[in-house]
Amino acid sequence: MSGSPVTLPRVDPPQRMRSHVRAAVVIVVLSVVVVGLGYPALLVGIADIIAPGTAGGSLLHATNGTVVGSSLVGQNFSRPYLFWDRPSMNDYNTTLAYETPPGPTNPALLALLNETISYMKEYGNFTVNASLPLELVSPSYSGVDPYLTPESVLVQVPRVANATNESVANMTAFVNSYITQPLFGFIGPAYVNVVNLDYALVAWTGVGP
Predict the structure, then answer these.
(1) Mean pLDDT in runs of 10 for the chain (209 residues)?
(2) What pTM does this model have?
(3) Which residues fall within 8 angstroms of residue 102, CB to CB, at 6 or more apart?
(4) What residues contact 94, with CB distance under 8 A and at least 6 apart?
(5) What angle separates helix 157-164 from helix 194-205, to the nearest 10 degrees?
(6) Residues near 73 by Cβ (< 8 Å), separated by ≥ 6?
(7) Whole-angstrom Cα distance, residue 43 to residue 141?
């Protein structure tokens, strides 16, 4: 059975174009609101509940509440009563970057060697050809790495113990308590967060920061 022909409403091309543009704009706005604002806000809210310190940037505070840094960013600890971090080619500045650690023809290598010699003199073993772990004589690629191997921290114990009038045994035990062991005992290396260690050291010994 044949019916009457259906007559569709005629839509002008400009009207059709405006309709498509309107739909596209709505999709873009919704995407920005949901993906750019809603989803990040949701994740930050969940992180604030689960791990508020980490979500806030792992900030460290002095006893008066002042922010003194982040446990994720190394600092220029150069005083004899503190444990020293890895050398940094950008002075631990997160806004500065450098391409790679210095090569044999780079003048910056001489400055790094001089820093190493100064460390060995301060450490007291310069005349006995002391061996230092690699991390103490080489910068990290980020320049702000706050982590050292336990060996790189423990080799500094005699200097720090002498400067703080603590026994080597007590200082060694203190450092050992801040060693993070590999996950499940075998995944990843053991390490020490020097920033956390030094601020805890200041609180323990009462020496200046």
Answers:
(1) 60 70 87 86 78 66 70 79 83 66 68 68 54 74 84 88 92 94 84 91 82
(2) 0.64
(3) 89, 108, 109, 112
(4) 73, 144
(5) 30
(6) 92, 94, 144, 146, 195
(7) 29
